[in-house]
């Protein structure tokens, strides 16, 4: 097993890190405080291929592998968790779903401009009363000739208030439960489609996370992904790639917090010397660095498995579970190292602590990840 990155992956890491340092880090605090959606940054990132990382070049993408995807999301998250999750959802949950389950016509129409960064995509599965139990969704779609009429509300949709289209999961045959779920791509401007309230959140403030409301919304049958009843399968398989992205995001948040803690520990003096020389601080830094590296390797392993063409559900769940809980621990230690200053919004570790917490919740809670891991482990 080769743990060394390829020259292309090393170049990508360097380029994305430089981009994040120059374009994102200087405005990360402002994005957090104002909630401004970073459309300008996304357009600049498109020039680096960040809006279509794994999409083949014939559909406007960069044609890279999922390890490259994890590397890019991590580097963005070191500077800004909001920008990172926008790109993660756009790449894996929107572009990934259409790339793997869309027709050639759908790829040309609903994937290519998104991979190029001309448009941004979203993913709408969660509902006010259907989160972890996604099969209990109540958004309905009834077919009428060459269109579906959709009614219902989706919640917690990253980029919901800014995206030009969303992959939306609806029930076309409610009596069949999860086997009656269908995936539709619903475009901005569709009759009966509106954006609801924006969520007021603890962290990741700049994601335009909103409700999507469908009132007799008309969607062409040509916008259906796969066949009727395949939606639940599409949702779960797409989430494998999404969880790799969230694992990478968590690693990036944690790495950014460790970077800040290292700088602070070298500069802050107590008892006549830098606190970096105190064993209590060194032990925290050692634990932080070790856990980050373990999470990074789990994310890369899941990405490698995904690229092999094999199902990576267990590996993606392991990576997401460990990385997300690790990020919260690392951010906690980073604040502790900063002392009272860590509790101030003047220092980035306070934002890292708030941003890290949601990685244990979205795209499947830690409890759901444990269920996924156990189910695969029990299959033997």
Helical fraction equals 40-55%
Task: Give the number of DSSP strands.
Answer: 10
Main sheet record = 4 strands, mixed
Cα shape: globular
Q: CATH superfamily assignment of the largest domain? A: Butyryl-CoA Dehydrogenase, subunit A, domain 3
Description:
52% of the residues lie in helices and 15% in strands. The chain is α+β, with helices and mostly antiparallel strands. It folds into 3 domains: 7-120, Butyryl-Coa Dehydrogenase, subunit A, domain 1 (Orthogonal Bundle), CATH 1.10.540; 122-230, Butyryl-CoA Dehydrogenase, subunit A, domain 2, CATH 2.40.110.10; 232-379, Butyryl-CoA Dehydrogenase, subunit A, domain 3 (Up-down Bundle). It has a 4-stranded mixed β-sheet with strand order 1-4-5-8. Strands 2-3-7-6 form a 4-stranded antiparallel β-sheet, with no helix packed on it. Strands 9-10 form a two-stranded antiparallel ribbon. Strand 9 (269-270) and strand 10 (273-274) form a beta hairpin. Helix 7 (231-267) packs antiparallel against helix 10. The model has no long low-confidence stretch (mean pLDDT 97).
In short:
By secondary structure, the protein is of the alpha+beta class. It contains eleven helices and ten strands. It has helices spanning 7-24, 28-34, 39-46, 66-79, 81-101, 104-115, 231-267, 279-307, 313-338, 348-357, 366-379; strands at residues 121-124, 140-144, 147-157, 165-171, 181-187, 193-198, 210-220, 224-225, 269-270, 273-274.
